Amino acid sequence: MSVSAMKKLTAVVMKRDASYLLRRLMWLGCVQVTDSTPYVQLADSAPLASPSDESGGKPALPTVGSGALPVIGAAGSVGMSDPFADPEVKRLNAAIKLLKKYSRKSGGLFSRRPVMTVTEFDAHAESDTVADALTVADTVAGLSRRLEEIKAAKSAIALEIQALEPWLGYELPLSLTSTADTQLTLGYLPPGRDAGETNAALLEELGECHLESLAEGVAGSFCAFICHRSKADAAREPLFKAGFTKLDLAAYGDTTAASAMRTLGARSEKLDAEVEEIKQNLTDLTSELPALELAADIAATDAGCRASKMLTSDTAETTVLTGWVPAGAEALVNDELSKILKRNSIYWEFADPAEGDNPPVKLLNRSLFRPFESVIALYSLPAYGKYDPTVIMSIFFFVIFGLMLGDAIYGLILTVGGLLAVKLLDLDEGIKRLVKLFAICGVSCTISGLLFGSWLGDLPSAFNQNMLGGEALNVAVWFDMVTDPMTFLILALAVGALHLLTGMGIQMYLLFKQRRPFEAIFDVGSWFVLFAGIGLYFIVKPVGTVLAIAGALMLVLTQGRASKNPIMKLLKGIMSLYNIINYISDLLSYSRIMALGLASAVIASVINILAMLAGPNIVGFILMPVILIFGHLVNLLINLLGTFVHTSRLQYIEFFGKFYEDGGQPFKPVSPKLKHVRVDGETRD
Amino acid sequence: MEYSFMSFAQFLSEYLTGTNLAILGAFLAASLAGIGSAKGVGIVAQAANGLLTESPDLFGKVLLLEALPGTQGIYGLITAFVVMLKAGIIGGGVELTLAQGGYLFIACLPIAFVGLISAIHQAKVAASGVNLLAKQPDEIGKAITNAALVETYAIFALLVSLLLIIFF
What we know:
The complex is a heterodimer of chains A (about 675) and B (about 170). Chain A has about 675 residues and is of the alpha+beta class. Chain A contains 22 helices and 15 strands. Chain A has helices at about 20-30, 35-45, 85-100, 120-125, 130-165, 195-205, 230-240, 255-285, 290-310, 330-340, 370-380, 390-405, 410-425, 430-450, 460-465, 485-515, 515-535, 540-560, 565-575, 580-590, 590-610, 620-660; strands at about 1-5, 5-15, 30-35, 115, 180-190, 210-215, 220-230, 245, 315, 320-325, 345-350, 365, 380, 660-665, 680. In chain A, strands 2, 3, 9, 10 and 11 form a 5-stranded antiparallel beta sheet that branches. In chain A, strand 9 and strand 10 form a beta hairpin. Chain B has one domain: Up-down Bundle (Four Helix Bundle (Hemerythrin (Met), subunit A)), CATH 1.20.120. In chain B, helix 2 runs antiparallel to helix 3 (about 60-65), helix 2 (about 20-55) packs antiparallel against helix 4 and helix 4 (about 70-85) packs antiparallel against helix 5. The interface between A and B is medium-sized, with 26 and 28 residues.
């Protein structure tokens, strides 16, 4: 209906009460805190009166009247840090994510968050819940770190075992490199080099040596080379030529490969046992999940409060809080602050936004239209104090959405599915709005499905023809969209024309409201006359012709009024007629309604054809429902995206382009940051 | 020895039938528009993966942008199916003359060409939309709207193709 008026709240409390005040305001959820530094600077230059007595009702600050209030900076211009990026919150959330993997009780689609009262939540916030949970979180983090270490250690062991495997048949200690008379070298020959042949060649060249192949692998053959001490130097070159690469296994010490592998295996088993133990520990810790989740919400909420508190400013003894409150919530905030006044000293006042203020924007609409606000928010909110088009846009969105996705069953799926999802699932606020939007628009889809005879596309007709051997059916109440696409195109363009004319109507209304009647009549009214003439031309030709010419003349005579030169006046007037091209292209843009409507209907009928290809027999009757369900679900999803995007586009470009004044900053009140629990709205006293 | 080479005229009279021309049209519609969409979705998906390394939780939003250049392929597919229906490839019972086949062939061209080009251009817009998301995750609406502007022309081409075929 409209953009909510905002009131500027200024509250002064003693420093020690500042956090308490913010927390109370947070539970109200209708105060957006703004940077109050300018206020304090002003207060410094004009010192406040001495603190009023606390018993004497609402104290007053005479020196700072509402007229003297400084301008509050642009809403949201002060960067608010993300409360979920707070280090404590991150630690808790990481632990929650980890523990959920070990939780036997899976989260499940239908699980609901635990509900508690504000009193309970705040009691937890003041007790050691967060500190305790952080200890648990650190334990969990430690355990998971240990799991990672073990994983790394185990893969290192696996690599070593793999490296030792070729030496299993080698029965000497791995570190042994020489005896009294011999020298021993371990290594491998490259693939393709035969150990026997190499041995024969070495024997011939050196004598008193032996190369023994122990295992063949992809990397080559693993060999032990033994020779007399005196030949050790001479052996180097022929070995090098043969491609022999030395391996140093001395690190395994005085053991054989088999026993080294046994040691490694034992170590790996011990690590496995530790992993089991840690996993058991983690599974046991899942009982702490609810406490961790509560603590994460408390920590995030506290972080949010701290971020808001950063915006308040301190004088020597007091804290000054400034913020925006929707006019409708003024009484609520007043009550809450009066309650605080019973125990603590506090001064507050409300003021209207001053010149140069940039209040945040909150839209006020009936609950049926509220889901459509998200379509507007996706574009940009209207500027403060400007026209809120939600209701009129909703009506056109509803109609156009239905025409683009006109199918009775698809509509029912959207509406029933959407309502069930909202009722049964614990959805986030943003998603809930979108689901509600689809549920509402589903009604429109169903209506146009009835009018244009689409029940899962042409399913009744296709079923009758292919499975029952009957005639094609026409189930359309009005006309069949697929066989009579031209009528549908005309309908789409007619809806488009109405949409555009409504946009121009709003433009005219807004111009009148701003006391700019000439612009309203000349710039918008002339076009109305011209279009009325063109429309009437097809009904009452002479009247239409006269009106159209009158409209065109109005344009030629008025559109150059900004120029002083009479020739320029006339030229600009004539040039303005060229704008008719813009209106025509706007209008033709609505043919997408028909194209997308036709696309979803044609894909649906293709699915029906595929589903019934097998014909009226047992296989056919078994295959049909499977293909129908899968195919139509895919079609619905694809077209849902396209329909949403293009319905929105028609609003943003063709409709909003006529009149919309955007640029509002969204209203972001201090509010609890709850992801895991729900808190019921009652406040404590 | 007898050679069974056919003359060019024989070749034409045997293979240049109305039905084959219609099939050629269906082929162009499905494959050109499909190629455009495949390339387009690929472009956006590459940009998306870059963003997802930083913020994996944006996957849902990014997926919407990725799906946008995918529609041209679907438009081509619809056109191909409708042509197959009209040409009797599905359902049967239709014999097309050469002129009728040529008509269906040409009717497929708008969505084939516009689908190919618009999907790629739309993908470039959507990919830059992914970059926009990296900085401002809440501005998904604007990113989608910008990409949807490009799609308009694919929709118009589909409209022309479908109307030509339906009034065949």
